[in-house]
Amino acid sequence: MNRTLVYAVFIATVLGLGLLIGYNNIPGEWYQALAKPAFNPPNWIFAPVWSILYVIIGFVGARLFLDHRRSAAMRLWLAQMILNFLWSPLFFGMQNVSSALIVIIALLIAVAGVIVASWNRDRVSTLLFLPYLAWVAFATVLNGSIFLMN
User: Fold this and answer.
1) Are residues 108 and 79 in contact, defined by beta-carbon separation less than 8 angstroms?
2) Could you give the count of Cα atoms lying within 13 Å of 33 in the half-sphere of its Cβ?
3) Which terminus of the chain is more exposed, N or C, with fewer CB under 10 A?
């Protein structure tokens, strides 16, 4: 299998699905009316940050698929993708802050799991997932704060 094609498919799929889910779950009046913490970033920051992260996530997914297909890291990568794509429909679509909080905590654990599981096998994937872990940790605190404030 052509490695370049695998990278292209993974990146395009993750980025495309992420953008599609984001487009179909745009923060609306409900979100604007919520009490938010002072550290809540402006809405415009989310799309570019997630776009960059989705490229990284796709790249890591391709690396794991090509070189460690049957590993715990690959299974955790798949789990975090499912959780990632579930969060926006729960939070913005269904306006279910508490369920979204449960999902994002599970996502945080899964992302950390990818990092731990890939540490000895693929240090590049581990290092590339660190900004993703930081962003999901921040998003978890943000989701938790919104839950507590509302």
Assistant:
1) no
2) 5
3) N
Task: Name every residue whose Cβ is closer than 8 Å to that of residue 28 and which is 6 or more positions away in sequence.
Answer: 92
Using the CB atoms, write b or e for 17-32: b if 16+ within 10 Å.
ebeebbeebeeeeebe
Q: How many domains does the chain have?
A: 1
Q: Report the C-alpha gap between 84 and 86 in whole angstroms.
A: 5
What is the reported pTM?
0.94
pLDDT digits (tens, 9 = 90+) for 80-100: 999 999 999 999 999 999 999
**Max alpha carbon distance in the chain (Å)?**
50
State the Cα–Cα distance between residues 62 and 14, nearest whole angstrom.
10
* Full residue range of the structural domain in which residue 40 is found: 3-149
Q: Which residues contact 53 (CB under 8 A, 6 or more apart)?
A: 131, 132, 135
